[in-house]
C-alpha cells in the first residue's frame, strides 16, 4: 500500500470521487463537523481499484490431479489444472476524508469486505491503487484475537498490537471490559463467547485507541440496541477527532444512524455514492 504524499493528496483531491459510479448523488460530501484543521482533507484515495482472487484447484473431477494426468500435463508442457479468477472489485474510485464515516452497502458478494481488506493493505491490487494517510486498522468479524486465550489476555495483547505501552493498557483495561459488557466472561477463553460477545469485545478493544482510518466489518451487527448506541457514540467521537471510519453492516439502520456518507457496491462496482438517506432509499428500492 502506498503512502499518500502531500502532492498526491492535492492532485487526487481534485479528481472526481467516484469515476466508476453509475450514479453520483454528490461526489464529495461535506464532512459534518468542522472541528479539526485536517477535517475534509483526504485520508484514503481509491483509484480505479481492481481486486482479483485466484482460486487454484477449481478443476473438474476429470481434470483433478492423479499421476497419469500430471504426467500428461508435463508431457504437453501444460500448467496447473484450472485456476479460476474471481473479479471481486471492478474499477472502484473514491476519496474519503478526515471526519467521514462511510457506510458500505450491497448484496452478498458485492465486494464490500474485499474493498475493506484492500484499503487495510491485506489484499494487493490487481490494478489501480489505494493511497492512505496514516495506518488503516481493520476490525473484522475475524479480527485477530485468539479464541483459546481469555478475554483478559486478548485485551492486553490487542492493546499491545495497537501500539500501546503497559501503562496505557492498564489505564484502558477497565474501560474496555465495561464497554464490551462481557462482565465475568473476561476471565474465560474467547472460545466460550457468543458471537455477539466476541464482536463487542473486538470493537471495545479496537475503539480504545483513536485511529486515522478504522475499518469495521459487520462488528456491530451482533450487538444489542444499547451496545449499538454506545458504539455509535464512539464512532461519532472518532469522526470528531477527524478520523475516518468505514462501516460494513447489513443492518441499514446502523448505517443510517452512524454514517454521513454511503457507498453502494453492486457486483464489484460503485452503483451510488452520496448522503445516507438518498443512497439507502435507492438501495431499498433496487
Ligand atoms: N478469499 C477469497 N477467495 C476467493 N474468492 C473470494 C474470497 N473472498 C471473497 N471472494 C469472492 O469475492 C466476491 C466478493 O466477496 P466479498 O466477501 O468481498 O463480498 P461482500 O459484499 O463482503 O459479501 P457479504 O455481504 O456476503 O459479506 C464474491 O464473489 C466472493 O465469492
Automatic annotation (TrEMBL):
Coiled coil: none annotated. CDD domains: ABC_KpsT_Wzt. The lineage of its organism: Bacteria, Bacillati, Actinomycetota, Actinomycetes, Streptosporangiales. Residues 72-284 form the ABC transporter domain. Keywords: ATP-binding, Nucleotide-binding, Transport. This is Teichoic acid transport system ATP-binding protein. Residues 1-41 are annotated as: Disordered. Residues 23-39 have a biased composition (Basic and acidic residues). PANTHER family: TEICHOIC ACIDS EXPORT ATP-BINDING PROTEIN TAGH. Belongs to the ABC transporter superfamily.
Amino acid at each position: 500500500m502506498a503512502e499518500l504524499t502531500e502532492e498526491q493528496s492535492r492532485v487526487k483531491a481534485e479528481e472526481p470521487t467516484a469515476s466508476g459510479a453509475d450514479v453520483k448523488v454528490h461526489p464529495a460530501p461535506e464532512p459534518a463537523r468542522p472541528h479539526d484543521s485536517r477535517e475534509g482533507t483526504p485520508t484514503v484515495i481509491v483509484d480505479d481499484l481492481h481486486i482479483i482472487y485466484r482460486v487454484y484447484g477449481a478443476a473438474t473431477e476429470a481434470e483433478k490431479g492423479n499421476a497419469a494426468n500430471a504426467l500428461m500435463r508435463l508431457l504437453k508442457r501444460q500448467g496447473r489444472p484450472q485456476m479460476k479468477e474471481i473479479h471481486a472489485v471492478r474499477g472502484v474510485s473514491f476519496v474519503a476524508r478526515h471526519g467521514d464515516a462511510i457506510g458500505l452497502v450491497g448484496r452478498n458478494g458485492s465486494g464490500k469486505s474485499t474493498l475493506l481488506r484492500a484499503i487495510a493493505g491485506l489484499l494487493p491490487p490487481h490494478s489501480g491503487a489505494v493511497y492512505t494517510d496514516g495506518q488503516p486498522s481493520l476490525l473484522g468479524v475475524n479480527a485477530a484475537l485468539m479464541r483459546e486465550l481469555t478475554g483478559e489476555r486478548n485485551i492486553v495483547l490487542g492493546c499491545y498490537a495497537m501500539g500501546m505501552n503497559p501503562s496505557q493498557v492498564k489505564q484502558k483495561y477497565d474501560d474496555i471490559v465495561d464497554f464490551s459488557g462481557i462482565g465475568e466472561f473476561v476471565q474465560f477463553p474467547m472460545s466460550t463467547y457468543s458471537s455477539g460477545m466476541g464482536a463487542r469485545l473486538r470493537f471495545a478493544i479496537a475503539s480504545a485507541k483513536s485511529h486515522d482510518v478504522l475499518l469495521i466489518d459487520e462488528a456491530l451487527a451482533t450487538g444489542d440496541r444499547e451496545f449499538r448506541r454506545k458504539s455509535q457514540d464512539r464512532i461519532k467521537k472518532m469522526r470528531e477527532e477527524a478520523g475516518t471510519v468505514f462501516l460494513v453492516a447489513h443492518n441499514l439502520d446502523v448505517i443510517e444512524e452512524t454514517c454521513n456518507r454511503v457507498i453502494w457496491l453492486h457486483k464489484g462496482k460503485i452503483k451510488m455514492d452520496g448522503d445516507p438517506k438518498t443512497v439507502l432509499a435507492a438501495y431499498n428500492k433496487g
